[in-house]
């Protein structure tokens, strides 16, 4: 049976003021009832070109313990590279539905890669107002071009170009985060897979929604990755949970949004926190985002780093192979 895509539902709901009941969130989740307005504390914005490495390390470590996320500006990726990535992704989602379905994730596939609409078992059978495309972009041995759109024709070249630029940002972030834990520069990277660290790209496509007050894009979650590097489009929608409230993360042109993921919380034995976040949708415009998840190889076991634990600070997390961690999380099995 064909899976109904959110984009198709959105298109057929253009003239109405309702959404199918499976998209209506409980009152505990509805964005109109749960978003904190008024005086809004801001997620830290960090200048990545700061020549003072000590200062940069401190700012990133503080943001990663307190907010579990931050934005970086002056990251070195040319804006043209980002605009091209966005344009190609948008053009893919604007292709006729039959063509997008050629990239659909096969129902029995073990890999997450492909075009799809639903990732996790959702509480109360609710659905998220978002479609997505997943494919690895690095290392070459992990790339399956079957899931890279052939259209637009520029898709492969612009994604390869983005991959080339995003990797140094990922490495630098991991080394600064490593220094922030009092470790050697390369220690964190080595412990998330070294050269085998995977870069998994996701494109989120949030079509306009007639009732953005009732629906959610991606629901509250933390990323399973080590870190996530995200490019948004210009439409506001990312929210972060802090001090028992949901806050909008302000869209900053040209900034990259960095999330601390579960594997970094585990490795750091809780010094860095993984960030609880979700997305809202809007009535008239399409929101899109391009997170890249920096993931350990599936067979690598991740646990608190021995150097960071002692009698006073015993391990708070179990050591687990990354693939087992993912399986438990996707199937909502306690870790
Ligand atoms: O769209 C966004 O800004 C966030 C997306 C996200 O959190 C995810 O795909 O894991
Ligand atoms: Fe996320």
From TrEMBL:
Please report the stretch or stretches of sequence annotated as the Fe2OG dioxygenase domain. Answer: 196-296
SUPFAM superfamilies according to UniProt: Clavaminate synthase-like (SSF51197)
* Keyword terms, alphabetized: Dioxygenase, Flavonoid biosynthesis, Iron, Metal-binding, Oxidoreductase, Vitamin C
Cofactor(s) recorded in Swiss-Prot or TrEMBL: L-ascorbate
Domain of life of the native organism: Eukaryota
Pfam families associated with the record: 2OG-FeII_Oxy, DIOX_N
What Gene Ontology terms for biological process does this UniProt record contain?
flavonoid biosynthetic process; pigment biosynthetic process
What would you give as a GO molecular function for this chain, any one?
A: dioxygenase activity
Coiled-coil regions in this chain? Answer: none
User: Which family does the record claim for this protein?
Assistant: Belongs to the iron/ascorbate-dependent oxidoreductase family.
What protein name is recorded for this chain? Fe2OG dioxygenase domain-containing protein
Please give the organism: Vitis vinifera
Taxonomy, top ranks, is: Eukaryota, Viridiplantae, Streptophyta, Embryophyta, Tracheophyta
């Amino acid at each position: 049976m064909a899976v109904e895509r959110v984009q198709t539902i959105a298109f057929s709901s253009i003239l109405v003021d309702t959404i199918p009941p499976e998209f209506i969130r409980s009152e505990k989740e509805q964005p109109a009832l749960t978003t904190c307005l008024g005086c809004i504390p801001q997620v830290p914005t960090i200048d990545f070109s700061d020549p003072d490495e000590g200062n940069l390390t401190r700012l990133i470590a503080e943001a990663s313990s307190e907010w579990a996320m931050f934005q970086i500006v002056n990251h070195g990726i040319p804006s043209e590279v980002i605009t091209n990535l966005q344009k190609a992704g948008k053009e893919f989602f604007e292709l006729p539905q039959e063509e997008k379905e050629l990239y659909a994730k096969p129902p029995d596939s073990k890999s997450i890669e492909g075009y799809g609409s639903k990732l996790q078992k959702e509480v109360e059978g609710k659905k998220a107002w978002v479609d997505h495309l997943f494919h690895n972009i690095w290392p070459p041995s992990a790339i399956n071009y079957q899931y890279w759109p052939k259209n637009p024709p520029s898709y492969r070249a612009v994604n390869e170009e983005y991959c080339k630029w995003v990797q140094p940002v990922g490495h630098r972030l991991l080394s600064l985060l490593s220094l922030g834990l009092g470790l050697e520069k390369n220690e964190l990277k080595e412990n998330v897979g070294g050269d085998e660290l995977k870069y998994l790209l996701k494109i989120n496509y949030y079509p306009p929604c007639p009732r953005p007050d009732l629906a959610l894009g991606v629901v509250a979650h933390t990323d399973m990755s080590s870190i996530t590097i995200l490019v948004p489009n210009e439409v506001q929608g990312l929210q972060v949970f802090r001090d028992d409230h949901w806050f909008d993360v302000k869209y900053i042109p040209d900034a990259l949004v960095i999330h601390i993921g579960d594997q970094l919380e585990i490795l750091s034995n809780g010094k860095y926190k993984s960030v609880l976040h979700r997305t809202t949708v809007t009535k008239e415009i399409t929101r899109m985002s391009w997170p890249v998840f920096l993931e350990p190889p599936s067979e690598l076991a991740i646990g608190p780093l021995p150097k960071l634990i002692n009698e006073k600070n015993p391990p708070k997390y179990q050591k687990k192979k990354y693939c087992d961690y993912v399986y438990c999380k996707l199937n909502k099995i306690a870790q």
